[in-house]
Amino acid sequence: MPAMRRLPLLPLRRSSSSPRSRRTVSAVAVLAVAGSMAAACGGSSDNSAGSDGALKVKIMSTSATFTDLPTTVIVAQDYFTQVGLDADVSFSNASNASLVTQAVISGDTNIGTSGAGALYNAYAEGKTNLVSLGTTNPSITFGLALNQETLDTLAERGVTPESSADERVKALRGLTLTSSPEGSTGNTYLRLMLSEHGVDPDRDVTILPNNDATAQIATTRQGRVSGFAQSFPRANFPEAEGWGGLWLNWSVDLPSVLPLAAHEYYTTRSWLEQNPEIAKRVMQAMWLAHRDLQNPTDELRDKVRALPEFSNLNETAFNEGWEFAVGAYKGATPLTTQEMFDNQVRIVNLTRDSPISFGFDDIYDLSAAEAAQP
């Protein structure tokens, strides 16, 4: 059996000036297209700028997966530079959206990008200075992978990856699965998928919380659990390495919650009020990434794969994850809709003691995304 390769969780480049690993996208030369965009915005005095006029911004994401594929496209295509930003983009050391939300609240970062669940929950608990600039992912680029022993056992019972989604979900009864901790986006997605098909996530299966994505994969491979629920391309890892396979694909097998405000770019109202030009340029880069994902090319895929986050990943896993993920972005734009919000509220309320009471206009300010629209 081949040795397991692990998806790196470190940021794209280490900075000698900071203890946290991060990538700095320096705008040494703003391209002509960026110049035209900036001119259309009327210039800015929002924040400090380098000698080349690039505006500085800090952006923090959860670990690099295809759940936030637009951000990796932005980095791979150097779009922040193109729109006149000197962007310090960092990835947290754990796939924990709440850490990103706390960084935004504390001012450690200007803009966070993570699953919407952490943002909605924080807002519901009184952090009403938070505001979303728009949605990066309108679907669930998420899957459940099982190890080979479990696949063989289920096949003996007559259920295979080709069976209906209902049969595949119900076949999970009695199994032990692992995911991110309860209350997280990933854990909630798993619970929702089970509940949609009449499987009680608290009684019919055992869900072991683990905030370490690499450990989730390892425990599944070792047979200590039957499977793990993670974003693509991690969920493609077992099949690519020959020790398991993909069992469920949320974007296909859970259509009742789509479209969805799954992943957000968000900040604080105070920062947005002081920095509307920077916010607009950030969303310009997001529009460019979404444009690319409407007709994704092999060249784009290879540029994303060349990022340090993905360069050491099994190529088959990356390519399979890419194919699953890009379809979820078809028709996507940063402009969140009421329907996307309502579907996300439904998901978040699954794990809340009291339902969310705020509305769409309370948590969204799409002015920057609208101003940046091509």
UniProtKB/TrEMBL annotation:
<feature type="region of interest" description="Disordered">
    <location>
        <begin position="1"/>
        <end position="21"/>
    </location>
</feature>
<protein>
    <submittedName>
        <fullName>Nitrate ABC transporter substrate-binding protein</fullName>
    </submittedName>
</protein>
<comment type="similarity">
    <text>Belongs to the bacterial solute-binding protein SsuA/TauA family.</text>
</comment>
<dbReference type="GO" id="GO:0042597">
    <property type="term" value="C:periplasmic space"/>
</dbReference>
<dbReference type="Pfam" id="PF13379">
    <property type="entry name" value="NMT1_2"/>
</dbReference>
<keyword id="KW-0732">Signal</keyword>
